[in-house]
Design goal:
Neuraminidase, single chain, 0% helix, mainly beta
Length: 296
């Protein structure tokens, strides 16, 4: 048995066409990849360290990311399983090299394509083709800190990197993006924390949609309770979100009226959602109550 990384785990990426090909994550954006399902007889390498983090325990890439979150986001392009993006202070792009992606102290396939700014760190990231969205927070991402809390969404939609500006979006932590694989201008973002009732200047709402690449946003939180939203996916023509009190769904075509999805799921924090490659079921990862599966 091989224990490639110990301690806290982060995101996971698996090739839907080959379950032996995966990327897993330790803290501080420390990603490792395997092409044989992690199998080793002790003399072969099951995993390769491929990350651009300055906290890489094996080597320090140059350049490297100085400020990834404890659990930093990465993921695959919704149109190309081999094109990956990852976020710390910088937006990192693997140049579409998939499981051939490599990184060492002297050369690294990850390219820093955007800097969100000193003291900022990316908490959510997603990509569709040439378009990337990165949701970040500043000053330690802690609204209770002494410095003013800041957050934003950076994107290269339109050809150049910029921070979107909207009075509709709350000043809280962006937690996930859901992108339309057929239209990169169509993006949904979710937010954590609570409304301004609890956080001064925090704004209201937890789910927002843009149809023009972040130029304008609409609050589609509707009848949702005022609780953090952690994850979002589209499944069975529904927009599905994981919140701190369970899973809710609304029509993907006309979002805004939300209902609890399925039965028997505990009203505990639902921190991650994943859809089966053939769309036949949804998996929910909860905090403290294990994994749950809902068939379509």
């Amino acid at each position: 048995m091989v224990s490639p990384q110990g301690g806290d785990g982060g995101d996971v990426l698996v090739d839907p066409a080959n379950g032996n090909k995966a990327v897993t994550e330790y803290v501080d954006l420390n990603m490792i990849s395997t092409v044989n399902g992690g199998v080793s007889n002790g003399s072969t390498h099951a995993f390769a360290t491929i990350n651009p983090s300055c906290f890489n325990p094996v080597f320090t890439p140059n350049p490297c990311d100085p400020d990834p979150r404890f659990i930093a986001p990465f993921g695959a392009d919704v149109t190309n399983i081999n094109h990956w993006v990852a976020g710390g202070e910088f937006v990192w792009d693997n140049q579409g090299k998939g499981w051939n992606t490599s990184c060492s102290a002297t050369a690294c396939d990850w390219v820093a394509v955007h800097d969100t700014g000193t003291s900022n760190t990316i908490n959510a990231i997603a990509d569709a083709g040439k378009v990337t969205y990165a949701g970040w927070c500043g000053n330690g991402c802690n609204p209770a800190g002494t410095a003013p809390f800041t957050s934003g969404i950076d994107t290269n939609f339109g050809g150049t990197w910029h921070t979107v500006h909207s009075h509709v979006l709350p000043n809280r932590v962006p937690t996930s993006f859901t992108l339309d694989p057929h239209n990169a201008a169509h993006v949904i973002v979710t937010y954590g924390a609570f409304s301004r009732h609890w956080i001064p200047g925090g704004g209201v709402g937890h789910v927002f949609v843009s149809s023009n690449g972040g130029g304008a946003w609409k609050n589609i939180s509707g009848n949702l309770p005022d609780v953090p939203v952690n994850s979002s996916v589209v499944w069975n023509h529904q927009l599905v979100i994981g919140t701190d009190v369970g899973v809710f769904a609304t029509s993907a075509a006309a979002p805004g009226t939300w209902v609890r999805l399925g039965k028997n799921l505990p009203a505990s924090p639902s921190v991650a959602l994943s859809v089966a490659p053939d769309q036949s079921f949804l998996v929910v990862a909860t905090h403290g109550r294990g994994l749950w599966k809902l068939s379509g």
